[in-house]
Amino acid sequence: MKTLDELYHQMLRQAADGKPVDVDGDPKLIDCLAHPDDHPLIWRVKPCVCPPDEKRPCQEACSWGAIKPSPDGKGMIIDDAECVGCQACVDACKLESLKTSKDIIPVVQELHDYDGPVYALVAPAISGQFGPNVTMGKMRTALKHLGFTGMLEVAVFADILTMKEALEFDKNVHTEEQFQLTSCCCPMWIAMIKKLYHQLLPNVPGSVSPMIAGGRTVKALHPNAKTVFIGPCLAKKAERKEPDIAGAIDYVLTYQELRDLFSVTNLDLEKMEEENVPHASSSGIGYACAGGVADAVAMTVAQLDPDRKVPIKTRKADGVPGCKAMINDILAGNRDGNFFEGMGCIGGCVGGPRAIIKKEEGKACVQAYGQEAQSRTPVENPYVIELLKHLGFATVEEFLEKSDLFDRHFD
Ligand code: SF4
Ligand code: SF4
Known about the structure:
The chain is an alpha/beta fold. The chain is 41% helix and 10% strand. The chain has helices at residues 4-16, 27-34, 57-61, 88-92, 104-113, 136-146, 154-172, 187-196, 210-221, 235-239, 255-265, 282-285, 292-304, 320-332, 359-372, 382-390, 396-402, and strands spanning 42-44, 67-69, 76-78, 98-100, 118-122, 150-153, 180-181, 226-231, 251-254, 314-318, 339-343. Helix 1 (4-16) packs across helix 2, helix 1 (4-16) runs parallel beside helix 5 (104-113) and helix 7 (154-172) packs across helix 9 (210-221). The longest helix is centred in the middle third of the chain and has 19 residues, at 154-172. The chain binds iron/sulfur cluster (2 copies). One iron/sulfur cluster binds at residues 185-186, 188, 232-233, 235-236, 343-345, 348-349, 352.
């Protein structure tokens, strides 16, 4: 019987060649690859064989209560509604019985068959992931060769959300006792607060992530468009399906899935032409690294009100244990800050589970790309205003007051 990986590569090649997918193998695995939305985020590729009276490594690894014994007591089931896509269970299962969902085959089919626009939205951690000489301009051309209508940098939407968080901070924090937790960017951080530290939700402004902001903006401007987010993150695959924000993003690919597609299509990325569209500020690009959100918001708050009576003081944590330790400090009253950023992965998104290069290398590439940016913050970024004008708003403030495009309501 063919393994999941063998079926994946065979089906991906057929889809990339524009042929109908037609392979022999386990029908359940083939259906997972062909129709990932009909299946949970984590796929079981082998039966569970851990003795029922022992602690299961997958269940022990899951901090979110998503893995439960099956009704017959012989195996484990994963509750997709509770799963945040952290991948801890996949790493914990030494028999490699669990695999993570892949969206690439339906995306390639959309690129061949869909008669409307299909946009790629690339996460800020993309710098350097496909080689040191593959610039953002070459990546844009390569994605168009694959059939995408265009490529947008999600860092632009990070800029708008930086502004939103900075204005929220300005509105809400006026005394030494008040504080704000970022709502931006990382679904693991948000899941942690929603599921484990619910009492802190009032301190989280109701904002969508830059990914959802990007998807909603594309669909506001091009209602028939399909949106494909491309990043280093598995948790984003779970985030896009959350009921209150579903519909903004149609597919989430990882850098590794995109690399597999480049590999079967034999595109030489380094030889692509440059198609540069300078957009994001260096602080929007910096969202890819731990501390990037806090630095961006701090700089923007300082620019908006340099004489603020209660200045912004940031604290940041990365990795689930680090985030939990910081939150426990907040709850114990040891705050030492009034703006808190948490990122689920060590190093931030450059350390995401489906990054291609090491996090230190990724961080250096992100920083080098950030230095090329023409602005440091969203306040200085003329493209942010231009984009909002396309949406019918004269200023960021007007947009934030009158539009609910970037809002979400946590319960
Ligand atoms: S991916 Fe994470 S949240 Fe989902 S079942 Fe596995 S350990 Fe739990
Ligand atoms: S820090 Fe990790 S979990 Fe959070 S958005 Fe980035 S890659 Fe995803």
